[in-house]
Amino acid sequence: MIWLSRTCSSLTLAAALQAGIVSGEFELVNSTESSVLRQKDYSGVVVWLEPVAGQAPVASRRTFTINQKGKRFIPHVQVMPVGSELSLPNGDTIFHNAFSTFSGQPFDTGLYAPGSTQKLFLRRPGVVRIFCNIHSNMSAVVVVTPSPWFAISGKDGRFAITDVPSGDYVVHVWHERSVEANLKALEKRIRVNDSTLLGRYTLSESEHVSLPHKNKYGKDYPADQKSYPLGGK
Ligand SMILES: [Cu+2]
């Protein structure tokens, strides 16, 4: 028993020691976004790893949050592993809604009051776009990854995925203003040992087209968008 115990401990220790960090950075080019042009804000690019052989383990259940504040979803882009809980607190003094018709997991919270929170589980990988049925300019994106190894770039474009076990992986990248073909071209196979540097990715936004979205009924938002304060009319 002692021998077994020591063996398990050694294996656990070895696995922990073999876990690595995968890091790199993104640069956004050909953008028309003022935050990119003026502040070199390269945040919001999502990256995740999928093992070449076998399935990724299911991540332990965690809650990720997108706040509703100032008639905005904050953060605008969130990333979480499949099976995670998404929390949507309404931090405004008016009613909001959250709905999605994307990635085969549609939902509609209905109207909900200031100070209250809606929670839901996203059970399938994919890109889930979220809107408010009252305010057409409110939008968010949740990238639900099929593995627990993911990251999102900060303003400086850098990212780091920690605790990645040694092995072979495919790197996947997603960015809201990059077209699917360009993102697909960035996929590459890597071998992770300890610290693995992926270098600099350049993502062009030249082919991005921003289109207005429909409300939850599939129709245009009314020109007169009302807000509903608590206790108001
Ligand atoms: Cu709203």
What report would you give on this structure?
This protein has 233 residues and is mainly beta. It has 2 domains: 18-57 and 148-209, Immunoglobulin-like (Sandwich), CATH 2.60.40; 58-146, Immunoglobulin-like (Sandwich). Helix content is 12%, strand content 39%. A 4-stranded antiparallel sheet has the order 13-2-15-16. The longest helix is centred in the N-terminal third of the chain and has 17 residues, at 2-18.
The top-level CATH class of the largest domain is Mainly Beta
CATH architecture of the largest domain: Sandwich
Integer average pLDDT: 88
Radius of gyration equals 20 Å
The profile of the biggest β sheet is: 4 strands, antiparallel
The structure class reads mainly beta
Bound molecules: copper (II) ion
CATH homology-level superfamily of the largest domain: Immunoglobulins
The count of domains is: 2
Strands across the major sheet, in which order? 13-2-15-16
Helix content: 10-25%
Task: State the CATH topology of the largest domain.
Answer: Immunoglobulin-like
Find the count of extended strands (DSSP E, 2+ residues).
17
Separate helix tally:
3
Short description:
Helix content is 12%, strand content 39%. With 233 residues, the protein is mainly beta.
